[in-house]
Design goal:
InterPro entries: Extensin-like_C (IPR009683). By secondary structure, this protein is α+β, with helices and mostly antiparallel strands. The chain has a single domain, classed as Muramoyl-pentapeptide Carboxypeptidase, domain 2 (2-Layer Sandwich). Helix content is 35%, strand content 25%. It has 6 helices and 14 strands. Strands 5, 7, 10, 11, 12, 13 and 14 form a 7-stranded mixed β-sheet that branches. The protein starts with a helix and ends with a strand. The N terminus is likely disordered.
Length: 243
């Protein structure tokens, strides 16, 4: 009987500890609503555990996504929808406009990208790129050089699978220009352990929480000169790639 009482007391202690842990976790989630899977997405809030899924899951009609951009102070212009064959085109393309809450320009300017990519780029700037630039390089980023967004083509190496570029759901980033004139280039600065390489790896890692797919020079030779960022719809289910 004594043994039984001890076992019961032990079980009660364990149950009490579990309850404390659960209550602490719930309190933490209330303090960080962006970590809740059912909490509404707001681009101006810090990133949370489910931010990437919410971004990739934005409807492709552009209405909800455009409303989120406006709410966050992002200036943009809708692009005319296009249909290019059976597999290519977009209905939710946008172009960033000057001013507003974003401070980084794109070069070349005015690429059309699917709205979820634009939303991811805005959050990447605020939560990842600028903090990393100031920490590791001592100056903010003023421009991101990009190699393209919309391109009606299959992925390289597999003609059977259409690229996310074919629906403007991807952007390729090749370099960052800082306010002090520094230019950080993926081709030249990815290797090593200096501040430029550290910056590039940090922004790559940070992008992985905001985009469905992030591919860098560590993935293959085709990505030796850029970071590929896309919002493949599978990202809304948690199927992500970060290389």
């Amino acid at each position: 009987m004594i043994i039984g009482l001890r076992r019961a007391a032990g079980a009660m202690v364990i149950a009490a500890l579990v309850l404390v842990i659960v209550l602490a976790a719930l309190a933490g989630l209330r303090a960080k609503p962006q970590d809740l899977p059912w909490a509404p997405l707001h681009l101006g809030e810090p990133t949370g555990l489910f931010t990437g899924r919410k971004l990739a899951g934005l409807p492709r009609d552009g209405v909800k996504c455009a409303a989120l951009l406006r709410e966050a102070g992002v200036r943009f212009e809708p692009a005319k929808p296009i249909k290019d064959g059976e597999a290519c085109g977009y209905a939710d393309g946008v172009r960033f406009a000057a001013g507003g809450s974003r401070r980084i320009t794109l070069a070349p300017a005015d690429p059309v990208m699917a709205c979820p990519v634009a939303a991811g780029m805005a959050m990447w700037e605020w939560n990842v790129v600028q903090p990393a630039a100031r920490r590791y390089l001592g100056a903010p980023v003023v421009a991101i050089e990009q190699l393209g967004t919309y391109n009606c083509r299959a992925i390289r190496g597999d003609a059977r699978v259409w690229s996310e570029h074919s629906t403007a759901d991807a952007i390729d980033v090749s370099a960052f220009r800082l306010a002090d004139g520094t230019r950080v280039v993926v081709t030249d600065d990815w290797q090593g352990d200096g501040p430029r390489a550290t910056f590039l790896h940090v922004v790559r890692n940070g992008a992985c929480g905001l985009f469905a797919t992030v591919l860098s020079p560590e993935y293959n030779a085709a990505h030796h000169n850029h970071l590929h960022l896309d919002q493949a719809a599978r990202g809304s289910m948690g199927w992500r790639a970060c290389r």
